[in-house]
Design a protein that fits this description.
The complex is a heterodimer. Chain A contains nine helices and 13 strands. In chain A, the strands form two sheets. In chain A, strands 1, 4, 5, 8, 9, 10, 12 and 13 form an eight-stranded mixed beta sheet that branches. Chain A starts with 21 loop residues before the first helix and ends in a 13-residue tail after the last helix. Chain A is globular, with a radius of gyration of 20 Å. Chain A folds into two domains: 41 residues, no CATH class; 259 residues, Alpha-Beta Complex (Sulfite Oxidase, Chain A, domain 2). Chain A is an alpha+beta fold. The longest helix of chain B has 34 residues. Chain B has one domain. Chains A and B meet through α3 of A and α2 and α4 of B.
Chain lengths: 322, 220
């Protein structure tokens, strides 16, 4: 594993030189295709991996305060067992079908109730913020969970730079829509593009992370490259991937799963062992990577982040606002 | 089809073929040849068995239509084995859920069966399969006589319950359950056609041609 430790006094961030230029990996791809055409390279499981751009190592510092000391899942598990319906609805589809996705160059449009709006290159969006590694628990609404070492920047710090106005009560996020690169988007399993939202205080909460990396390297396509959200006290589907737009809104924005099945998936989607999904129990979860005969573990309120986030929901009926 | 060929070649070959999905799970479980069950092996095992349970139910239901369409009467001799494999895979699906997924956590199991409709109907399908498996022997066929056929028509309902169970379990992508449903409707539709529509059509044709009532009866 390649981890560049930041030098003292050095502001850790992605160096432009660390991102493989598209032309380089395209050349690499052509070379490989030529090699295969010539029959000199055995077509095997290595092929889908080799045509991807190399994932660049990142400079970051571990944020111990916001990291669990549980053992992270393997890189293999985290990158081969994904819910990313844009690439297909099976867990292995995102790893298998995201090879053509191009996460660079990337821009993010900021709009709505803020003093500064516009379209920004991803590098510029991140530039002022040192990257942090945070080991978070991830609890999927399907009652499985992982422990994942993300690399990212606090969402609140990024949002503040755009000076949201007093009318900014919510933050709406939108994923990229590229059916030609995302085969799952050619069928309306969900309404594309995927959208999500947070209340402004949830977005500003220090645990909310804009993720750009995993295990010290840039985010693989199947995990939401190049930019995704992670609010670890919420079910995984709130963690919108491949974000292209962020809008400050006065009204509660729509969210994709809530649009698809409003009685099963709420806007808040806080992890809560006492509020079951209508079709299955949320009381216990299967930790990915546990042994075949290991039992499920109890799910914790707010996914174990109760101390940090419970105050956001004081006085709210969490059965009603699920 | 000679009985000897059927008994000595076709049936053993089919038996081995039907065991392949089970063997594939074992290969992956023990990592033979680098095969793997992925990040969530329990889910993978459970899904594989459930899918094959449904597939074998449909394959079993396909025997009668295939016999009719291709005039292959011998196919009927394979039906019992196919039906028992359907039961085998459904049972393995259930046991995987009970032992590996739920870890014999009985209060959770009971709550799921009674309070989660998709689990309730899946469980109902399994329970209904038990009498069919038990009465699948020659002895039971003889003993039950005409009632055997009525009892085994339960499989129509079981297949639909199984598909419904699957449809209700998926989160959003209902394409696969709908494919199963389409196949089931064709297979059950053929039976309905044979039982009700085709005789009615024959009666009408016979009436139009002015054939005497007696002759029409005989032709049915």
């Amino acid at each position: 594993m390649l981890i560049k430790r930041p030098q003292p006094g050095y502001s850790a961030r992605i160096q432009p030189s660390e991102i493989t230029p598209e032309s380089v990996y395209l050349d690499r791809r052509r070379l490989l295709q030529a090699a295969i055409a010539a029959g000199t390279l055995a077509a095997g499981p290595a092929w889908p991996e080799t045509r991807r751009p190399a994932l660049a190592p990142l400079s970051f510092e571990r944020n111990a305060r916001f990291s669990t000391d549980e053992t992270p899942n393997s890189y293999e598990d985290i990158t081969t067992y994904n819910n990313f319906y844009e690439f297909g609805t099976s867990k292995g589809d995102p790893a298998a079908n995201s090879g053509r996705f191009e996460p660079a160059p990337w821009t993010v449009t900021i709009s709505g109730e803020a003093e500064i709006t516009g379209t920004f290159a991803l590098e510029d969006l991140l530039k002022p913020h040192p990257l942090e590694e945070r080991i978070y628990r991830l609890r999927c609404v399907e009652a499985w969970s992982m422990v994942i070492p993300w690399v990212g920047v606090p969402l609140g710090a990024v949002l503040s730079r755009f000076k949201p106005t007093s009318r900014a009560k919510y933050v709406a996020f939108k994923s990229v829509h590229r059916p030609e690169q995302m085969p799952g988007q050619r069928y309306p399993v969900l309404k594309w593009p995927y959208v999500e939202g947070l209340r402004i205080d949830e977005a500003m909460h220090p645990l909310s992370l804009l993720v750009v990396g995993l295990y010290g390297k840039t985010l693989p396509n199947q995990n939401g490259a190049p930019l995704r959200l992670m609010s670890p006290w919420k079910y995984g589907f709130k963690g919108i991937k491949s974000i292209v737009a962020i809008e400050f809104t006065e009204r509660q924005p729509p969210s994709s799963w809530n649009l698809a099945q409003p009685h099963e998936y709420g806007f808040y989607a806080n992890v809560n062992p006492e509020v079951d999904h209508p079709r299955w129990s949320q009381a216990r979860e299967r930790r990915i990577g546990a042994g075949l005969f290991e039992s499920r573990i109890p799910t914790r309120m707010f996914n174990g982040y109760e101390e940090e986030v419970a105050h956001l929901y004081r006085g709210m009926d969490l059965r009603k606002f699920f | 089809m000679s009985p000897l060929l059927l008994r000595r070649v076709i049936k053993p070959a089919l038996f081995a073929l039907c065991l392949l999905p089970f063997a594939a799970v074992l290969w992956r479980l023990f990592g033979i040849g680098g095969a793997t069950l992925g990040a969530n092996p329990i889910e993978r095992i459970q899904d594989t068995f459930g899918q094959w349970g449904l597939r074998f139910l449909l394959i079993t239901l396909a025997v009668t239509p295939l016999r009719d369409w291709f005039h292959a009467v011998w196919l009927i001799h394979l039906r019992r084995m196919l039906g028992l494999f359907a039961f085998f895979y459904v049972l393995m699906h259930f046991l995987t859920w009970l032992i590996l997924d739920q870890g014999l956590y009985w209060s959770g199991v009971l709550e799921d069966i009674t309070r989660r409709p998709f689990i309730t109907i899946g469980f109902a399908a399994l329970v209904l399969l038990v009498p069919l498996a038990v009465t699948s022997t020659h002895g039971m066929m003889r003993r039950l006589g005409r009632r055997w056929k009525s009892l085994h028509r339960l499989v129509y309902a079981i297949a639909l319950l199984g598909i419904w169970h699957y449809y209700w379990q998926v989160k959003a992508d209902v394409r696969e359950p709908l494919i199963y449903l389409a196949i089931a409707l064709v297979l059950l539709g053929w039976r309905a056609w044979k039982a009700w529509v085709a005789p009615a059509l024959r009666r009408r044709t016979a009436a139009a041609s002015g054939a005497p009532l007696q002759a029409r009866r005989a032709s049915e």
